[in-house]
């Protein structure tokens, strides 16, 4: 008896098993960890603070970055007249700790409207990272991510 062209059931099962193992491994490799989600959110906030500062200098008018921890994000706008430019929401469980409606306004010369520095804390699970904004010169610094001994406060489980 002559065998036709095609695959046997055993060959198909083995091929599907190999595909499942490879795709499962890729999912694990490319899955975003809580630590990397926190780092991405902190870098985005730092970049947007600098963006607001540059826009104030270039356009010669006041710009604002307003945090909103109730909506878990912030928005960027310019003043006189007030017009919202963009809203950003933190994803993957990253949260803001502290004052829920803190705002940073940059003057046309690029300095923030205020005379002291302030520190914001972003966190996810047991990881947190501080952003320090020096309001005297408008510089933004990121401190290294640290693991706290506090219990999980929401966000993704470890």
Topology diagram in text:
Elements: H1 9-30, H2 34-59, E1 63-68, E2 73-78, E3 83-89, E4 95-97, E5 103-106, E6 118-124, E7 127-134, E8 139-142, E9 146-147
Antiparallel strand pairs: 1-2, 1-5, 2-3, 4-6, 6-7, 7-8, 7-9
Question: Could you describe the 3D structure shown?
Answer:
- The chain is of the alpha+beta class and 158 residues long.
- The protein has one domain: minor pseudopilin epsh fold.
- Helices cover 30% and strands 30% of the residues.
- It is built from two helices and nine strands, in the order H-H-E-E-E-E-E-E-E-E-E.
- It has helices spanning 9-30, 34-59; strands at 63-68, 73-78, 83-89, 95-97, 103-106, 118-124, 127-134, 139-142, 146-147.
- Strands 4, 6, 7, 8 and 9 form a five-stranded antiparallel β-sheet that branches.
- The longest helix has 26 residues, at 34-59.
- The radius of gyration is 24 Å and the shape is elongated.
- Residues 153-158 have low confidence and may be disordered.
